[in-house]
Design a protein that fits this description.
Helix content: 25-40%
Distance between the termini: 64 Å
CATH topology of the largest domain: Hsp33 domain
Radius of gyration: 24 Å
Bound molecules: zinc ion
Strand content: 25-35%
Structural class: alpha+beta
Low-confidence stretches: 304-321
Number of strands: 13
Number of domains: 2
Strand order of the largest sheet: 7-6-3-4-5-11
CATH superfamily of the largest domain: Hsp33 domain
CATH class of the largest domain: Alpha Beta
CATH architecture of the largest domain: 3-Layer(bab) Sandwich
Length: about 325
């Protein structure tokens, strides 16, 4: 089954719900980052949640970022999603090893432990919106439910699960987010609470063969559940050599000069997908040249190629041509 997100409502709009099948995208993340089972679970839960939260956003170019700063061995996680089902992310320490908890459960709470969770939404407004809360258990689902309650004033049930196979690959991954609107009647809240208490873990439901629609049916069936639409989901990193060279171009001229002068190739690894980009010695010289040209432009000397040979300091010596006082 390919990964996808289902968007739904129930109880006459008093409930909005999302569910995801994310086995493939979590396996993709595991392969990129070579995560240990407990970190596959921690990253997989965060990726699954971020993909659903991305699907809550309305704008074409909206971006959502979940940052977890952890005092535990995981150190932290960073995950970004757009509104089209694309998600990417990484764990600061992908190689945490911890003993299993009772009944073979991966100890995500032990790996992430205490710390902070923040959610940033860039909705194309002047300032991105950021909400933050303290981690409650480090199990991710509980922490996000607490975030929704305290930062967005939206009571939510968040279920996230990743089942790692004996060979460390991802056997099942998925989740749901169910949110109550302020006008939700008490009887709806009571029924939903009872259903959530009844069902086992997300991975158990998936092992029973339930699809995201089936999971929502189990939780919200008989409550006027409306399945609105589905959205394909995938692990996708939009990095490229050109983008990485632009990032390189923000380094100081001094640092770039040192790299270029060393005459060796430089390898830059994308944090989000672990793809390595190699810049040969002459490519580093070109990055440096572009950096110098940009600097010259900023100093008001818009002239040309010769800037590479002319020390930038000379351009600074004359009257300030960019309109500020020297
Ligand atoms: Zn990348």
């Amino acid at each position: 089954m390919n990964d996808y997100i289902v968007r739904a409502t129930a109880a006459d709009g008093a409930v909005r719900a999302f569910a995801i099948h994310s086995t493939e995208l979590v396996e993709e993340a595991r392969k990129h980052h070579n995560t240990t089972p407990v970190m596959t679970a921690a990253l997989g839960r965060t990726l699954s949640a971020a993909a659903m939260m991305g699907a809550m956003m309305k704008g074409e170019d909206d971006i959502l970022t979940i940052r977890i700063k952890s005092d535990g061995p995981a150190e932290g996680l960073l995950v970004t999603a757009d509104s089209h089902g694309n998600v990417k992310g990484y764990a600061y320490n992908p190689h945490v090893l911890l003993p299993l908890k009772r009944r073979g459960k991966l100890d995500v709470g032990g790996a992430v432990a205490s710390g902070f969770l923040s959610v940033t939404k860039d909705l194309g407004l002047k300032e991105p919106y950021t909400g933050q809360c303290e981690l409650q258990t480090g199990e991710i689902g509980d922490d996000l439910a607490y975030y929704f309650m305290t930062s967005e004033q939206t009571p939510s049930a968040v279920g996230l699960g990743v089942l790692v196979d004996v060979d460390s690959t991802v056997k099942q991954a998925g989740g749901f987010i169910i949110q109550l609107m302020p006008f939700a009647p008490d009887e709806v809240i009571d029924r939903l609470e009872a259903r959530i208490a009844e069902v086992g873990s997300v991975t158990q439901l998936m092992e029973e063969g339930l699809s995201p629609e089936g999971i929502l049916e189990r939780l919200l069936g008989g409550m006027d559940l409306q399945l609105n639409d589905t959205l394909p989901a995938r692990f996708y990193c939009d990095c490229s050599k050109e983008k990485i060279s632009r990032v390189l171009g923000t380094l100081s001229v001094k640092d770039l000069s040192e790299m270029a002068d060393a005459g060796e190739s430089v390898e830059i690894v994308c944090d989000f997908c672990s793809t390595a980009y190699v810049f040969a010695a002459d490519e580093m010289k070109e990055v440096l040249r572009q950096r110098m040209l940009k600097l010259a432009g900023r100093l008001g000397v818009l002239n040309d190629e010769s800037m590479y040979e002319t020390p930038a300091i000379e351009a600074k010596a004359g009257p300030a041509e960019d309109g500020t006082d020297a």
